[in-house]
Amino acid sequence: MIFVTGGAGFIGSNFVLDWLAQSDEPVLNFDKLTYAGNVNNLASLKDDPRHVFVRGDICDGEQVLALLREHQPRAIVHFAAESHVDRSIHGPAEFINTNINGTFALLEAARAYWTALEGDAKAAFRFLHVSTDEVYGTLGPNDPPFSETTPYAPNSPYSASKAASDHLVRSYHHTYGFPTLTTNCSNNYGPYHFPEKLIPLIIANAQAGKPLPIYGDGQQIRDWLFVSDHCTAIRRVLADGKLGETYNVGGWNEMANLDVVHTLCDILDSLKPKADGGSYRDQITYVKDRPGHDRRYAIDARKLERELGWKPAETFETGIRKTVQWYLDNPEWVADVQSGAYAKWVETNYFNREAGQ
Ligand code: NAD
Ligand code: DAU
Description:
Belongs to the NAD(P)-dependent epimerase/dehydratase family. dTDP-glucose dehydratase subfamily. This protein has 13 helices and 12 strands. The strands form 3 sheets. Strands 3-2-1-4-5-6-10 form a 7-stranded parallel beta sheet, sandwiched between helices. A 3-stranded mixed beta sheet has the order 7-9-11. The protein has a two-stranded parallel sheet with strand order 8-12. The chain has a domain at 2-190 and 224-252 and 294-314: NAD(P)-binding Rossmann-like Domain (Rossmann fold, 3-Layer(aba) Sandwich). By secondary structure, the chain is α/β, with parallel strands linked by helices.
């Protein structure tokens, strides 16, 4: 079996669903169920014996080690993290705790488990760490995309905490020979994306008749990757990646935020026209920029393409249509995650925010 951390979050739950759709190898899904974790994402696996869910914290190394010894996984795929940049600005402590201390505790438990393995089981074991392109910092308009050798220059508490976790993973390979793999991916989008992040927030706010908040001038550029393409990349790296190496994952889809929001409004205008005949674009509202906002991310994914034969299957045009349709088809999922702590976050991030341009 494989041991997945954070498998109730956005990418983790897509990965678990994808994994069990393609193979019968069981998954132990270990997740703390923070505000971002949602077992409803995994509802289709409710009676599936291949999926074992355990609620727990990666900072609890003893619990992790006991589970590893009990279930004897052949690999760990590590998604668990605090993942939202804006939250890291309002409250960095939890990012240091989970992303740095938690990854450290997980590495220690995994190393103890792996050290005791023997023969083929030891040789086959893998620890795959899922990280982000944000560790490389920000690009100018004419800079080449981030490659695996771009120096780290994280600019937010979130990206600094992910960078620290990447360095720990690297050091465990270098020092202990621990069998690590690291992936650094660009912005994902798709089903089960929590509506604190740009794309699902815009889809939800548009339908609710609320403002569509654009930070600063909206000309910040991100590279967008459909989440199932990220899942495929992780499977490829887990199967054939070289130990100790890192692989950049991206969709070759650089877009300015304002263009992303315009695209979403246009798709919604055609799939769910407004009753008053207007456009969702009329709801766009400029708000004060994110502090330290990185201007541009772009990923050079040629190593993964060349060495492991991976390519994204979706273009932004196909992936974003599927995504909008998924949100239109699943209003109860959105309503469910918007209850509770979500309202408090919206108040913290938007209500007292000054107007922008
Ligand atoms: P998410 O916030 O949607 O989900 C995180 C999951 O981790 C949740 O289920 C949460 O309950 C769980 N978790 C948090 N703290 C935990 C802890 N201490 N112990 C156990 N579980 C814990 O995040 P996501 O967007 O799915 O991102 C998953 C991973 O991919 C993260 O490591 C993130 O840094 C990385 N990543 C995300 C993106 C993106 O665009 N979303 C891009 C590149 C890399
Ligand atoms: O690049 C990979 C990263 O992508 C991941 O490591 C992070 O976990 C993930 O959250 C994402 O980070 P971003 O900060 O790029 O994603 P977010 O959806 O928060 O914002 C995307 C862009 O949209 C960013 O430039 C900020 C902007 N934005 C965001 C929100 C929530 C707005 O203009 N308005 C908003 O209300």
